[in-house]
Amino acid sequence: MPGTRIAFGPFVLDPDIGTLLKEQIPIAVGHRGLTLLAALTARPGEILTKAELMDAAWPGTAVEEGNLTVQIATLRKALGPADNGGEWIATVPRIGYRFTGTVEPVASASRGPYHRPASRRLQCCLLPI
Mapping DSSP to helix (H, G, I), strand (E, B) and coil, where does residue 122 land? Predict the structure, then answer.
């Protein structure tokens, strides 16, 4: 859905404008990497075949499977380890890849482009003494 960002762990992915933030700091990931990450996070827990991912990142173009492997490796390096110590993107041998994290849609709002949901923010109140 346009205008929706995807939050997972400390990250927020905005596929519409092509940004990936970690704790509100931009992470350098190329266009193809962001496209692959958007495809994977759109279907968390599901296996996406290599062909599906290649069609997403290189539509209408014949490319070597090695290109996909390089992009996935670059994404893994940029994302680092998942909260549980594993990887955000799991390899399914001879088939494809699966996003292992829990995603949460974050609707774009007038509060700013990188607002996290209130449920994830720390709440603090000051009481009079």
Answer: coil
Q: Say whether 118 sits in a helix, a strand or coil.
A: helix
For the chain, the helix, strand and coil percentages under 3-state DSSP, each to the nearest 5: 30, 25, 45
DSSP 27-89: ----HHHHHHHHHHHHSTTSEEEHHHHHHHHSTT----HHHHHHHHHHHHHHH-B-TTSSBSE
Cα–Cα dist 121/115, whole Å: 10
* Tally of residues, the chain: 129
Domain 4-120 has CATH 1.10.10.10: yes
Residue ranges of domains in the chain = 4-120
Tokens 């827990």 map to which residue? 45
Say yes or no to pLDDT of 122 above 50: no
Q: What is the pTM of this model?
A: 0.79
